[in-house]
Write a structure and sequence with these properties.
Oligomer: single chain
Number of strands: 9
Strand content: 5-15%
Strand order of the largest sheet: 2-3-4-5-6-7
Structural class: alpha/beta
Shape: globular
Radius of gyration: 19 Å
Order of helices and strands: HHHEEHEHEHEHHEHEHHHEHHE
Bound molecules: 5'-deoxyadenosine
């Protein structure tokens, strides 16, 4: 397996069958090399993103997600602008210089105006912070307006790069073609862009993951969000099994070697699958954590999957716990924006 890892380091790309071998390898060399490359690029610093789950309303009906429109057991909420700014202030005090506004595709934000106001308010109050949006599919003009208002980055997971697989995870109204178009639009506008996929989502095969890697190669994003699928009991996939941790970790390692400078989070889903999942992710090449700075009340209601961690904590609890976890593995949270390092 060593030769394939070395080839990946040198060429930053592999043939499909070679990727498939690495995806299931138990040879520690892959993860060791990924961890080494992470250290070469970022030292012992881990970038933190203060995550604000600002609305759980969603017009979409993705079969995997607990926030899906058809889930009548989901208690809906939407944070006010003041609550969001208060969360930013708490995050700022904890040393975070990136805020991620994540939400469902909330019809309240169909028009750009309330979002533009929100982005502008954060931009003015926190001029030294990066603003990341994770709010789903919108028009080119809407993305452009948000960028001009001061948003820096955008996360929009592609979920799977295979059309048939995409259709098994989403209702007909949603298409992979539109998702990809959004990602290309965001790139063209100038956002630092993140795509990504779940590992072990229902009907996913190793070939699909290879297609994901090839799509990532083509899109050339600044960030990739990738964690295990976890079932949510109130969704059509409630009885499916969770994604495989070993494959997830191998995907993180492969991504680090494909793109040494990539901003790659150790996801909350990985930390939900296993208590020290995020630490394991970092040891396999991840360099970003996303501590939750949302008000405690809403956290239980923002359930993409069952068993989400940290729902009874406040921002400070989450921050202290995260800093301790990082320290245990010889790492430290960086107090900076953690922008993509070009080159
Ligand atoms: N398990 C794991 N990840 C999920 N997401 C949504 N539902 C689940 C689930 N059941 C991920 C999707 C989405 C991101 C915000 O969360 O990839 O893009």
């Amino acid at each position: 397996m060593k030769h394939l890892v070395d080839k990946l380091i040198e060429c930053r790309h592999l043939l499909p069958d070679e990727y498939k071998q690495l995806l299931v390898t138990t040879d520690p060399y892959l993860r060791q090399k990924a961890n080494e490359v992470r250290k070469q690029v970022f030292g012992n610093k881990i970038f933190a993103r203060g995550l604000i789950e600002f609305t759980n309303y969603c017009k979409n009906d993705c079969y995997y997600c607990g926030l899906r429109f058809s889930n009548k057991n989901c208690n809906r909420y939407r944070l006010s602008v003041d609550e969001i700014l208060e969360s930013c202030a708490e995050g700022y005090a904890l040393g975070y210089r990136t805020f991620v506004l994540q939400g469902g595709e909330d019809p309240h934000y169909n028009s750009d105006e309330p979002l533009l106001q929100l982005v502008k308010s954060i931009r003015v109050q926190f001029p030294d912070c990066a603003i990341t949006l994770s709010i789903g599919e919108r028009s080119y003009d809407s993305y452009k307006a948000l960028y001009n208002a001061g948003a820096d980055r955008f996360l929009l997971r592609h979920e799977t790069a295979n059309d048939e697989h995409y259709a098994k995870l989403h209702p007909k109204a949603m298409t992979l073609a539109n998702r990809k178009q959004c990602l290309y639009d965001l790139k063209e506008i100038g956002f630092q862009v993140g795509c990504g996929m779940m590992i072990g989502s229902p009907h996913q095969t190793l070939d699909h993951i290879v297609e994901d890697l090839n799509f990532i190669k083509e899109l050339d994003p600044e960030m990739v969000g990738c964690g295990p699928f976890l079932p949510h009991s109130d969704t059509p996939f409630g009885k499916e099994s969770a994604g495989n941790k070993e494959i997830t970790l191998n995907v993180l390692a492969i991504l680090r070697l494909m793109k040494p400078n990539l901003n790659l989070p150790a996801t909350t889903a990985l930390g939900t699958l296993e208590d020290d999942g995020r630490e394991q992710g970092i040891m396999c090449g991840a360099n970003v954590v996303m501590p939750n700075i949302s008000p405690t009340e809403g956290r239980k209601k923002y359930q993409l999957y069952d068993g989400k961690i940290g729902t009874t904590d406040n921002a400070t609890d989450s921050g202290i716990k995260m800093a301790e976890r990082m320290k245990k593995i010889g790492c430290e949270i960086a107090v900076n924006r953690g922008d993509y390092i070009n080159g």
